[in-house]
């Protein structure tokens, strides 16, 4: 079953397409560097920081977690939006529940295989549409798009969705990720055009 969350824009604005965005029929690849390689045997997904129990899950263990398939929009800060992409993955809330987020956690840093990081307030992560996605259009997520695992954040500009994600750090105070240190917005709400911090 595919859950359609393309109406989430109603929480933020009147138009599905955020201001200053144009619809793209393609799904372009945008990375700061090349596509990193990974090894199914040694890959692990780690959760640490302000949690009751730190996690380290193998690829198989991660794939055994409860998953969902959603139709979502995708808004790149450079101005293109993809409408109605289908992603399959594990909800952020599932990981948060497994690790037990401590009451002093307020912020989250995502870590990726290419050294990329991106941060969000915890409340922006604890939403049903924030997924650790391993599937796209019913197939394994292509590696240039972040396979084996990426984050999707349809309520935010897409730089908040770390491709090749393999770590989540819960923080007791905000820290800035890769683009956020270089002037991009920490909150990144497309309907408020929060492109720069
Ligand atoms: N690990 C990692 N994640 C990343 C990036 C990156 O360079 N490295 N680029 C970000 C940016 S700016 C965008 S727009 C989206 C692009 O995702 P796509 O290549 O699947 O379109 O990934 C985001 N996540
Ligand atoms: Mo981007």
TrEMBL record:
SUPFAM superfamilies: Oxidoreductase molybdopterin-binding domain (SSF56524). Residues 13-33 are annotated as: Disordered. Residues 33-179 form the Oxidoreductase molybdopterin-binding domain. The lineage of its organism: Archaea, Methanobacteriati, Methanobacteriota, Stenosarchaea group, Halobacteria. This is Molybdopterin-dependent oxidoreductase. It comes from Halobellus rubicundus. PANTHER family: OXIDOREDUCTASE MOLYBDOPTERIN-BINDING DOMAIN-CONTAINING PROTEIN, PROTEIN-METHIONINE-SULFOXIDE REDUCTASE.
């Amino acid at each position: 079953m595919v859950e359609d969350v393309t109406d989430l824009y109603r929480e933020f604005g009147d138009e599905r397409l955020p201001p200053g965005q144009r619809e793209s029929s393609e799904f372009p690849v945008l990375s700061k560097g090349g596509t990193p390689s990974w090894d199914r045997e040694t890959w692990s997904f780690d959760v640490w920081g302000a949690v009751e129990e730190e996690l380290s899950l193998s690829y198989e263990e991660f794939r055994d977690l409860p998953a969902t398939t959603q139709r979502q929009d995708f808004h790149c800060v450079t101005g293109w939006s993809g409408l109605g992409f289908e992603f399959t993955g594990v909800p952020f809330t599932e990981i948060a529940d497994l690790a037990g987020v401590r009451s002093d956690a307020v912020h989250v840093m995502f870590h990726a295989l290419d050294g990329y990081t991106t941060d969000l307030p915890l409340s922006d992560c604890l939403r049903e549409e924030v997924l650790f996605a391993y599937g796209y259009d019913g197939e394994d997520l292509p590696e240039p798009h972040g396979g084996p695992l990426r984050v999707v954040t349809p309520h935010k500009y897409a730089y908040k969705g770390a491709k090749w994600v393999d770590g989540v750090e819960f923080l007791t105070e905000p820290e800035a990720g890769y683009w956020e240190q270089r002037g991009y917005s920490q909150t990144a709400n497309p309907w408020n055009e929060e492109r720069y911090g």
